[in-house]
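Methods — Computational structure assignment.
A single polypeptide chain was analysed. Its primary sequence is given first, followed by the predicted tertiary structure written as structure tokens.
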Amino acid sequence: MPDKPWLFRTYAGHSSPVESNKLYKSNLAKGQTGLSVAFDLPTQTGYDPDHVLSRGEVGKVGVPVSHLGDMRTLFDGIPLEQMNTSMTINATAAWLLSLYVAQAEEQGADRSSLQGTTQNDIIKEYLSRGTYVFPPAPSLRLIRDVILFTTKEMPKWNPMNVCSYHLQEAGATPVQELAYALATAIAVLDEVKATNPSEEAFGQTVQRISFFVNAGMKFITEIAKMRAFVDLWDEITRDRYGVTDAKSRRFRYGVQVNSLGLTEQQPENNVYRILIQTLAVTLSKDARARAVQLPAWNEALGLPRPWDQQWSLRAQQILAYETDILEYEDIFTGSKVMDAKVEQLKEEARAELARIDDMGGAIAAVQAGYMKGRLVESNARRLAAIESGDQIVVGVNKFQSTEPSPLSTGSDSIQVVPEHVGTEAIERLKAWKAQRDEAAVAKALAELAAAAREDRNVMEPSIAAAKAGVTTGEWGATLREIFGEYRAPTGVGRAARESSGGGEIVEVRKAVEAASLALGRRLKLLVGKPGLDGHSNGAEQIAVRARDCGFEVVYEGIRLTPAEIVNAALEEGVHVVGLSILSGSHLPLVREVMERMRRNGLDDVPVIVGGIIPPEDERELKAMGVAAVYTPKNFDLTAIMADIVRIAEGAGEKAA
């Protein structure tokens, strides 16, 4: 009898609850068996659409959900009792789960019947994705609240999805992905264990924690990594926590294959990359994914269209239903090659886990900047290998000649989120507030605040707040006032190797020295991340390479307003401002930065922009006065540094 296939998911959501609802219904009709909801950045970081940091970000990388009315629209006509819903949400996981429960109960569902997953992994947000809000201790407490609530009230729900996916996107090696994900799980289980649950309740907690991993192009290594995950999780839960039930110790994971390796150049090649990566998490029966969601072939170009998502879904269906991979036992059992690789990864991961344990655990390692610094270093090595040609990427640094692709041309080659979705979201927010009972809202928020201060579980007060009409921003503001906010270490404190970037780096250093001499002081670059985009990998690598080329670098991390960036440029007296934006919000945010620079007399300071920027947007940015635009095809960081020197020298000559 063949095994049942894994859950087929497509990570989706954009523009508005109405548009996202249409997309979900369409994907379900095409054979998708589980929902995977992408939320926009304001929702992920606890802001309403009318907040200053939400400008340009509403609906860009996911769907905006500001209140129960939005949740009703998002799942209109979709019976939540019959769904298996994954929600990629972390800092505000307790709130979005509360809205989901409130909506399900409105539909007549019993909360105990709901199936799905809240990602709810805040540690990887500090390390890689940047949608954290609160400091580590209260963040861990919120994770604990969700776990304890769901274990009792929603036994079919996975309350936490330890997410190593974004660690690999931030440059993690297989060993780092193993060690940092398992260290995160240990931190969470230690937090739950401190509440003194019964052995049965703790066993249920362990059983409901799942993982969300990444699969890259090193095919054999990725299979071995997943088998190592299975063994190490069984070992940790048995030996560290005394879980005796083998079923409770099973490593349960979902996967999205690697988006980091998707190329803007010859993007049709990404189809093969995605399929190879999918095989790595489906071929080995003993380490097979429980759910798979695939990126679209053109995500390095912009937001994929419904047809692009359908193509990714069809790849899963063909693999599951047309091949025989579900009909056999594990084909790698007894392989000397595979066993040796698994043992090597396990040994190295145990050593890294021991180092983290000696520091006091994952939270201490985050606060010390250890894990972030290691990720920045490994990502720098990866990029240097691509620049030098030691790591071949087909179509990027080898086999670059190409025929024009008929798949990626034309104005409709990617999905575009219009800027007016933000204005419309603000109007919906105003209408929602106008019709609600303000006294009920005030009472609900007061109860939420009391629960937070008194260390009571916030889930029931949050569900009550959802039903009373509280908004995402109000929930976030209430807990910010009690818990405070946090800025994680950037990880760029130590320089990369002097050899990074190849021999050309020496020439760039000479150019920086000459330009600094001509300008009368050290050439200074401000690297800024405006808005809520927390994907800081590119900005970090630019900052590291610029510093290693001899620039003086100003980099203050993520989540800055255009006003803060312009103020920093003014106070620091920088020669060039570099903006990194990967959320698709580049047009409104850059426009505001440019306007503020002109008003502050900085119109002679050149601005450069990097991100996932379509050609038509690149033309618009340059029309605003942007000096240069860099997209994923510009992988040579040293060449970018040489450009920046020339741009700064040109601006200096004009000023003179």
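Note: The radius of gyration is 24 Å.
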